């Protein structure tokens, strides 16, 4: 590992703050609600660190940059935050944005703990500088594929948009389903209206439709069309990327928001720490916290532990990833090298397949545990 020159703030003992750069999508076309939950978790954990004395007596400070789901903007933010002398980077939700940030952080020698993005290839080459809390897409989406098979679905259509994340998801599903007798039928939403998607579903004889598309467009119009097409009354709609996790989904779709299984990264039962954090996050957000908010909290818990032990030197932070052992809200966090993953990976966070209860759409039902 190449050691970069010391950052301007390295080793300070003058009582100035220890700064962490936070990459978060807070405006469109970013998924704003996910960004708000991620930031709420980051901020809550920072407040708790500071209430407990900070980092060896120095306050922890978040320097937040809005990525707007733009990879180029994220890379530029990494450059800016590096110039500001942040001790590490945290956050990001969108996978292609996190990949740009991780690539730039690796080039600069700036530690980056990615909170939420799941794309397997966050970096093209193995790196010591980047670690990740969220499970890799190949891990979570295989669990989702097993759920589909267990539920009796073997002809599965995917309404797929363009982009590396969606293409990767379709490939993971296809490769996992095919040896087990499953067939994946891809529908290109760029060429099909929601009504045409319904026609294709009828012709394909699929028993499940997976939404590999953005939110709210075109996911919401597709759901409305399928739900109100009498020919498709028996089809299951699924959303492995987690679109139904957030309250906006129920607001936009009402009763149509329920019974759409998605991936969520929470344990079946929260620990005492997780339960306390859930209460505080609910108060901060004025709604139930998503798993993304817990990811934000856990990110700061890990970075604070590393900074207390190793100071602000970036090389020492990067060297410490394999020695991390922190009790997070969703289990004990430790990083390792995982085949096919080029960053330090928590293998694995808890994975669930859940949906919104048709009888009570603001309540979630656990359908499958990976």
List keywords for this structure.
7-stranded mixed sheet; 11 helices; disordered N terminus; 20% strand; 370 residues; 4-stranded parallel sheet; globular; alpha/beta; 16 strands
Short structural description:
The chain is an alpha/beta fold. The protein has helices at 32-51, 71-83, 95-108, 137-150, 164-177, 194-204, 219-227, 247-253, 272-285, 291-310, 314-320, and strands spanning 18-24, 60-66, 88-91, 112-114, 130-132, 155-160, 183-188, 208-212, 236-238, 262-264, 326-328, 331-333, 335-336, 344-346, 352-357, 360-369. The protein is 39% helix and 20% strand.
Notes on the protein architecture:
With 370 residues, this protein is of the alpha/beta class. The chain is built from eleven helices and 16 strands. The strands form four sheets. A seven-stranded mixed β-sheet has the order 2-1-3-4-5-14-13, sandwiched between helices. Helix 1 crosses helix 9. The two termini are 35 Å apart.
Question: What is the radius of gyration?
Answer: 21 Å
Mean pLDDT: 95
Helix content range? 25-40%
**Unreliable parts:** 1-13
Task: Output the helix-strand order.
Answer: EHEHEHEEHEHEHEHEHEHHHEEEEEE
């Amino acid at each position: 590992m190449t050691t970069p020159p010391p950052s301007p703030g390295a080793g300070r003992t003058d009582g100035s703050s220890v700064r962490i750069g936070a990459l978060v999508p807070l405006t469109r076309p970013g998924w704003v609600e996910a960004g708000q939950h991620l930031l709420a978790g980051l901020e809550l954990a920072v407040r708790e660190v500071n209430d407990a004395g900070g980092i060896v007596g120095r306050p922890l400070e978040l320097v937040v940059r809005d990525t707007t789901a733009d990879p180029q903007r994220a890379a530029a933010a990494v450059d800016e935050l590096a110039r500001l002398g942040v001790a590490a980077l945290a956050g990001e939700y969108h996978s292609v944005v996190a990949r740009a940030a991780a690539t730039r952080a690796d080039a600069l020698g700036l530690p980056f703990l990615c909170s939420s993005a799941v794309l397997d290839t966050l970096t093209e080459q193995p790196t010591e500088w980047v670690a990740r809390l969220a499970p890799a897409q190949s891990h979570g989406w295989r669990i989702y594929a097993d759920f589909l098979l267990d539920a009796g679905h073997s002809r599965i259509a995917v309404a797929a948009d363009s982009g590396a994340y969606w293409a990767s998801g379709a490939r993971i599903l296809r490769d996992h389903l095919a040896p087990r007798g499953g067939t994946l039928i891809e529908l290109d939403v760029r060429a099909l209206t929601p009504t045409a998607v319904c026609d294709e579903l009828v012709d394909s004889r699929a028993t499940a439709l997976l939404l590999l598309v953005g939110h709210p467009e075109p996911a919401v119009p597709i759901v409305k069309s399928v739900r109100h097409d009498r020919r498709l009354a028996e089809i299951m709609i699924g959303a492995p990327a987690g679109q139904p996790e957030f309250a906006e989904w129920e607001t936009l779709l009402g009763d149509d928001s329920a019974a759409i299984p998605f991936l969520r990264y929470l344990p079946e039962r929260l620990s005492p720490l997780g339960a306390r954090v859930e209460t505080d996050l609910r108060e901060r957000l004025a709604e139930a916290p998503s798993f993304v908010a817990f990811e934000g909290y856990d990110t700061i818990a890990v970075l604070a532990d590393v900074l207390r032990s190793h100071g602000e030197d970036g090389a020492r932070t990067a060297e410490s990833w394999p020695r991390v052992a922190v009790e997070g809200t969703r289990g004990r966090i430790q990083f390792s090298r995982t085949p096919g993953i080029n960053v330090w990976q928590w293998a694995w966070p808890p994975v669930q397949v859940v949906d919104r209860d048709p009888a009570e759409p603001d309540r979630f039902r656990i359908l499958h545990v990976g």
